[in-house]
Amino acid sequence: MTKEDNSIALLIDCDNISHNSIEGIINELSKYGVINIKNAYGNWKSPKLKGWEEKLHEFALQPIQQFDYTKGKNATDIAMIIDAMDILYGQKMDAFALATSDSDFTPIVMRILRNGIKVYGFGEEKTPEPFINACSQFIKTESLIEKDDEKKSNFTKRELRQDTKLVSLLRNATLRTMDEDGWSNLSKIGAYISNNSSFSPVNYGYQKLGDMIREIDLFDIEMRHNYKQMYIKDKRG
């Protein structure tokens, strides 16, 4: 089975995610497989979800109605968690995608991961760290939304270098995957990062890790095997 054949279940917490991000979420997930399940949860009688209603047919989303039975209690969260467990045990999925900015979903993410299944998280800037760190990969929805009056811009070299957590992640991944000569294959670096963090270059405005590596300019770069594979080496030696 190739990556293009992977089955993905997308569960959307419409109470905690902007309808403007759905196109970006769908496009991003298309890199990793086919979205066989697209469930959108919320109280569809609420005027707050009017924006989401307009997206249902366009993106073939299945609306799952959840009434607000008790004030202060989020029925949407409970329904999503129940469905996630039903899908986990009732259908063979290669990955889950949870679109929410709510940390209450952290336990279900960890439960799915225990079955060896990746979980892609999508949430707003305000999303709590526990949920972000639990996901196999987490992408901020703000980075997926095209503004009418401005284009999405990449982080500059200076901005990238000022992110000490990012710099440490890249250098550590390079150290862990380098060969005898100190060079690291970019695909191995990407695999190491994917297995050990929720990082995505998309959050920095870059579609590819290699493009971000070039911009940050902390590594020597060699293109090998007919210019198809990138190898990098820490400039510090």
Tell me the helix content: 25-40%
For the record, give the distance between the C-alpha atoms at the N and C termini, rounded to a whole number. 39 Å
How many beta strands in the DSSP annotation?
Answer: 9
The biggest beta sheet is recorded as: 6 strands, parallel
* Sheet/helix structural class: alpha/beta
Taken as a percent bin, the fraction of beta residues is 15-25%
Walk me through this protein's architecture.
Strands 3-2-1-4-5-6 form a 6-stranded parallel β-sheet, with helices on both faces. A hairpin with a 4-residue loop joins strand 8 (219-224) and strand 9 (229-234). The chain has 237 residues and is of the alpha/beta class. The mean pLDDT is 91. The chain starts with 6 loop residues before the first strand and ends with a strand. The chain is elongated, with a radius of gyration of 19 Å. The chain has helices at 22-29, 50-56, 75-90, 106-113, 129-134, 157-162, 164-177, 186-196, 209-216, and strands at 7-13, 34-42, 62-65, 95-99, 118-123, 137-140, 184-185, 219-224, 229-234. The protein is built from 9 helices and 9 strands.
